[in-house]
Write a structure and sequence with these properties.
four-stranded antiparallel β-sheet, 130 residues, transferase, binds guanosine-5'-triphosphate, NDK-like_dom, binds magnesium ion, Nucleoside diphosphate kinase, 4 strands, alpha+beta, ATP binding, globular
């Protein structure tokens, strides 16, 4: 079955949103197949977001991801990659719809609570990496 890498970022953990995130994915019908809470090494954060390394916000993005523990999860189910991105909402919370996680819980693009893989191929890479 299809799998996605979903990660609650440090702001989501600090704000007590772990249960809320898990609830939304469970209620949709997806299956949690792996979960780990960890402090992220800088090198791991840099690898995870390697595609963005030339962007001006890359340094602050890495600072953000290493600023506290994250909850790394693998979720499984039909179309979980695309549907997971819908549950999460648009990257910039200014554009994410109410009813999505970012739409309901975030206001800043640099503190947007959660990560979700953007393709099946990247999901496989991210699951292997994490
Ligand atoms: P992820 O699920 O975290 O990968 O987000 P995404 O796929 O919706 O967006 P993308 O992969 O393009 O960017 C990764 C992360 O970088 C975003 O979630 C933001 O936290 C951050 N980011 C993206 N664009 C900007 C930006 O313009 N400014 C700042 N400060 N951060 C950004
Ligand atoms: Mg992304």
């Amino acid at each position: 079955d299809e799998r996605s890498y979903i990660m609650i970022k440090p702001d989501g953990v600090q704000r007590g949103l772990i249960g809320e995130v898990i609830k939304r994915f469970e209620q949709k019908g997806f299956k949690l197949v792996g979960l780990r809470m960890l402090n992220v090494e800088r090198s791991l954060a840099e690898k995870h977001y390697a595609d963005l390394s030339s962007r001006p916000f890359f340094g602050s993005l890495v600072d953000y991801i290493v600023s506290g523990p994250v909850v790394a999860m693998v979720w499984e189910g039909r179309n979980v990659v695309v549907t997971g991105r819908k549950i999460i909402g648009a990257t910039n919370p200014a554009a994410s719809e109410p009813g999505t996680i970012r739409g309901d819980y975030a206001i800043e693009v640099g503190r947007n609570v959660i990560h979700g893989s953007d393709s099946v191929e990247n999901a496989q890479k991210e699951i292997a990496l994490w």
